[in-house]
Amino acid sequence: MSVEVLYFAWVRERIGLPREKVQTDAATVADLIAELVAREDRYALAFADLASLRVALDQELSSFDAPLAGVREVAFFPPMTGG
User: Other C-beta atoms within 10 Å of 33: how many?
Assistant: First the structure.
């Protein structure tokens, strides 16, 4: 399947891209991360600490064990703070 992957804030800075189209066989978000980390060191650096990351699937906050079936967009970003 093909998904649009978006990167925000320091995740974008570490990877060097704001977004990319990814062909994947991943069943879950965690599987997708494993595929990305295996690509290059910059992905490994960006995903080194999952506790400091959040994920949204089709613009809905989600978890790393969420299935990717039917998902068109995956976004990774640091936790938000409000004020």
Answer: 21
Domains in the chain (CATH in brackets) are: 2-77 (3.10.20.30)
Is the pTM higher than 0.85? The answer reads yes
Closest residue by Cα to residue 30 from 52, 70, 63, 7 = 63
The Cα-based distances of 29 to 8, 37, 41, 52, 63 in angstroms read: 16, 12, 19, 15, 8
Over residues 23-75, the pLDDT tens digits come to 999 999 999 999 999 999 999 999 999 999 999 999 999 999 999 999 999 99
